[in-house]
Amino acid sequence: MNCKAKYSIGDVSRICNVSRKTLRYYDDINLITPERQNYNNYRYYSHEALLTLPVIKFYKQMGFTLEEMRRFIEENRESGQNYYSIKTSFSNKIKELERVQREIDKQYVSIKGWHDLITEAELVLASDTREVAIKYVEGAEYLYQKQVFNNDFKSSIINIDWTNYLDSLNMEITGPVMLNFLSLKNRTDEHPKQIVVMQKPLRPAPEGTTIRFGECMMAACYHIGPHETINETYTKMFKWAERYGYSYVGGSYERYVTDYWTTKNSDQFVTEVLIKVSR
């Protein structure tokens, strides 16, 4: 590029790949102010002003506002370069971006988790997977709350008490709601029963607020359809254990893959029933 003493707005637009409209706006807000000839008020830019534009583009890439850019440029023009001032601005921007990144990470994990559940349900429905199988369940920490189950599935899954409890802990969760029915013997009767509501935390939880689930072999079976017919799946699992010589240990866990959160069509509900086994 050949250096000149003066550049027209058209020259600057072409050389720096910046529209004339943007250059006029930069002039209006005193970000880059061209000089003007007295006799015709024609604006022209110095070589120094021209070299300011790549700096502005880089500030823009880093997410600084036009007002912040203007302050940086003015301080640089007046003091030569105030290291402390610009370093402080950069430090504040780093903190802001770290906060934004945490929010984006939280949103990504939440959406990705829900997306994966829908994909899982689609595969189960497409293959009509209803067989009982043995599988190893990875261990993980879960937030939990003890409650009483009154055979109202919707209120237990879209659970106001659970949501308020999470709010009190200032905790966010991911993945499906799980209900741990403490007594397998009483799971299929109509009486109120003790349960534990469980869900994975998005970040490390306060001490004493989580329980460990998994790290064992479990019998697993998908139940497709309304929750009110889940006893059919339990009957199937009881018969399977008797046939193959397995004993169930403890209560059952119901993992709600798709439910009222995702669809109003109960025929599309997919629930995984998990029970620890031994021989």
From TrEMBL:
Record flagged with keyword DNA-binding: yes
Give one GO term, molecular function aspect.
DNA-binding transcription factor activity
The HTH merR-type domain covers 6-75
Presence of keyword Cell inner membrane: no
**SUPFAM superfamilies (UniProt xref):** Probable bacterial effector-binding domain (SSF55136), Putative DNA-binding domain (SSF46955)
> In which domain of life is the source organism classified?
Bacteria
Pfam families, sorted: GyrI-like, MerR_1
Q: Which InterPro entries match?
A: DNA-bd_dom_put_sf, GyrI-like, MerR-type_HTH_dom, MerR_fam, Reg_factor_effector_dom_sf
Keywords, ordered alphabetically? DNA-binding
The family database entries (PROSITE patterns) matched by this protein are listed as: HTH_MERR_1 (PS00552), HTH_MERR_2 (PS50937)
Protein name (record): MerR family transcriptional regulator
> Organism source for this protein?
Desulfovibrio subterraneus
